[in-house]
Amino acid sequence: MPNSKVDYDIAIVGGGVSGIYSGWRLLSNLYDSPILREWAAAGGKLRVAVFEGSGRIGGRLLSARPPGFPDTVCEIGGMRYTSAQTIVRSLVENELNLPHYKQVVDQPQNIVYLRGEQLRYLETQDAHNLPYNLDWAERQQLRPGSGADPSGLLAWAIGQVLPGVLTAKSGQALQEYLQTVTVDGTPLYNHGFWNLLARALSTEAYELARAMVGYDILGSNANAVDLIPEIFDFTPNEQFYLLNGGYDTVPWTLQQRFQQLGGEVIQDAWLAQASKRRGQQWLADRAP
Fold first, then answer.
1. Of 42, 37, 15, 16, which is closest to residue 27 (Cα–Cα)?
2. Which H or E element spans position 208?
3. Where in the sequence of the chain do the CATH 3.50.50.60 domains occur?
4. Could you give the strand order of the β-sheet that contains 240-243, starting from the edge strand earlier in sequence?
């Protein structure tokens, strides 16, 4: 049964990044909108609530500190933003002023855990050091001195099935190729990504590449046309940035600012229904 009924001008369902950001923007830019000014004048202030069914604001942004590593932040959800994401970058650096630093990846001394074994990143570039049963062709890609990253097995396998990707591997040329190429007479957009990889990559190599690539989505069986650009099409000279306190400091800081402006965050409760009354105002009906 509903446990309360409260009048709001705006009810936002979901306290993920977009939800809490929307609430903050509504209240911080109130006077840019004639409609919002009208609603605020009618009720004395603009009444905005964010409803979140869980006990945490932030959605898929979640940071954690592992036991024994108090100065290390691990990102369980989204982990970074890039120099190409100008809106996000401006929010983090100029508006919220959150401490951040440039991410440096693939350093030789980085620690890698593969099937319970601890290796240095440099050691993963030699197939003999890896606890995976790769076939001969796959081992050739990771032969001593090659300098190849095991995650590159994904690109290698795609090149075996779709050689044209290697010549049209970025921008509009790549998109046009992927939209028109066929595999066994069937358009590529009707193929799953893993089904495509399985034509040239063993299960062992797939597991290795998935562990090393760092993105679960690249090990999924989503549409091949959507995922292939995630491997080949990168913005030139793009820089990556991490937040000192973890990426979830973004929604937490937005929550604080939203509440300071008079917004209400309702957690551990679901919005059961919203019924319109008194002109533009709505009655939010909460359920536990």
1. 37
2. helix 203-213
3. 4-61+248-287
4. 81-82, 240-243, 100-102
| CA nearest neighbour of 254 among 53, 46, 12 | 12
Query: pLDDT digits over 147-166, tens only?
Result: 889 999 999 999 999 999 98
Tokens (6 digits) for 285: 């009906």
- C-beta separation of 231 from 62 below 8 A: no
Helix residue spans in 53-189 (DSSP H) = 86-90, 136-141, 153-161, 171-180
| Residue 1 clears pLDDT 70, i.e. is over it | no
Q: What is the mean pLDDT of residues 67-79?
A: 86
CA distance from start to end of the chain: 8
Residue 199 tokens, joined = 């034509």
Write the CB contacts of 163 (distance below 8 Å, at least 6 apart in sequence).
none
Beta bridge partners of 109: none
Q: Please name the residue that has the structure tokens 């593969």.
A: 114
Q: What proportion of the chain, given as a percentage, has pLDDT over 70?
A: 93
Residue whose C-alpha is closest to residue 39's, from 51, 26, 52: 26
Structure tokens at 262: 């008079």
The two structure tokens encoding residue 44: 């004395």
**Alpha-carbon distance 170 to 155, whole Å?**
13
Q: Which CATH class is domain 4-61+248-287?
A: alpha beta
Cβ neighbours for 238, distance < 8 A, ≥ 6 positions apart: 82, 83, 84
User: What is the Cα–Cα distance from 127 to 148, expressed in whole angstroms?
Assistant: 10
